[in-house]
Amino acid sequence: MTPVKNNSSSQRWTCTSHSLVILLLSAILQLGLLIYAQHVDSHPERYGGLKYTDVDWRVISDGTGLIFNPNEEEGNIAGGWLVRQLGLRIGDPYERSTFRYTPLLPLLISPTLFHPLLGKSILVLASLAISHLLVKLSEEGSFWLIHGVWTLNPFVLNINTRGSPESLICLFVILTLYHLKNGNTKRGAIWLGIAVSWKIYPVIYVPTIWSYLAVTRRYGWFGKRIWEFGIVCALTVLVINGFLWSIWGEPFLHHTYLYHLTRLDHRHNFSPYFYPIYLSLFSSTSKPSTYMITTLPGIDAVQKILRHPLTSFLPQNTLVISSGFALGTVTSIEFTMFVQTTVFVVFNKVCTSQYFMWFIPFLPLIIPQLHMTRTETTILIALWVIGQAIWCSMAYRLEFLAGQVFLWVWAAGLGLFGVSIWIIGEMLDGYGYGKGGVSSPKAKVQ
């Protein structure tokens, strides 16, 4: 027995040492990209006027400056009741146009006031922390899969070093999953509350977690531990957001939450809703249509309903909620969360590249649970990459060549939408039996 234990201990030590080396390599690569970003941003004229850093980072860092540099004469002062009551001097990040985030984000990256690299380094640390958690959550033998899909993934490194703060919300979601899988429901509830307070979308995981706790943990659908989880999560959300509201008042509620309910973004993106929104925001100068359909009774009401910003949530939320309950009792929690996240992103009325970061951390955890041949896997990956490449080529013609290709951009987006739906279906069909999953007629030995 002793030699076996020594071998096991030696293997764990080898994996740990290799993991540290890869994490260090990822940190060095990201630091190099951050330095490169600094160079490109400082000399955009050498790169066709392009900047490496995403505009989101500039918005967030501007918000940080506004918070720490209040100016009552210019109206830059927080308007919450606590600020007025105590006479605090705190700036308002919502004075910055297009700032639609929680104030926690500019506070967290506040070291950027001293140097941008310091603030962006927090995003790097978050991505490395995700890698560490994924190693702990994964099955034995998934070491290289984790580091290939997340730690050293060029897409992840690029999005992260451009200043998109998606690694932070991914970290909170994975922390929620980590504590739930380890049986600590209270900590899981707290991290879910933090995640929902950071970005509203993690609320979609409630059906999955409810199903997981009720069936897998055998707490019952309305058992004491279920109520405990819900109360702890709700209190976390209320405390965090109540405190933020007491400082920044109504602008905080509007821009952080309510704005996203009625948001209409006509800028080109992957969403199938992009082009209809674009057309609806720009009235036509042509004569009114004389087609019979415009004279049908109730047609105006139907058109208003279809054009309403909340209408897009109907198919999205129906699929997200139903998949959470339907899959949550027969598949692993990480697989169900992956499906929910992917469906949410694909059906969202605004879909950009950084949103893909939301479901990538789940991939190393669920791939071992899939029974798919290498050929099938290669085809799925190739189609998804090709779909994005086609869309990017159309978007380049629109953005940089000023081509009249709005319709082609939309068509490319619809193509990627169709490919994404097909991939989700194939992954559902290939989910393995005997690993906490449901039987599949397509299950194959890898």
Question: Nutshell version of this structure?
Answer:
By secondary structure, the chain is an all-alpha fold.
Describe the structure in your own words.
- It is globular and about 60 Å long.
- It has a domain of 262 residues.
- α8 runs antiparallel to α9.
- The N terminus and C terminus are likely disordered.
- It is 64% helix and 0% strand.
- With 446 residues, it is mainly α.
- It contains 18 helices and no strands.
- This is GPI mannosyltransferase 1.
- Belongs to the PIGM family.
- It is a multi-pass membrane protein.
- It is an enzyme of class 2 (transferase).
- It is found in: Endoplasmic reticulum membrane.
Keywords for this structure?
446 residues, mainly alpha, 18 helices, 0% strand, globular, disordered N terminus, disordered C terminus
- Rg over CA atoms, rounded to whole Å, is 24 Å
> In terms of per-residue confidence, which ranges show pLDDT below 50 for 5 or more consecutive residues?
1-6, 286-293, 433-446
Major sheet size, sense and barrel closure: none
Based on Cα principal axes, name the global outline. globular
Structural class: mainly alpha
Helix content: 55-70%
Count every helix, treating DSSP H or I runs of 4 or more residues as helices.
18
Number of strands: 0
Query: How much beta, percentage-wise?
Result: under 5%
| Mean pLDDT over the residues | 86
Task: Summarize the helix and strand pattern as letters.
Answer: HHHHHHHHHHHHHHHHHH
Head-to-tail CA distance between termini:
32 Å
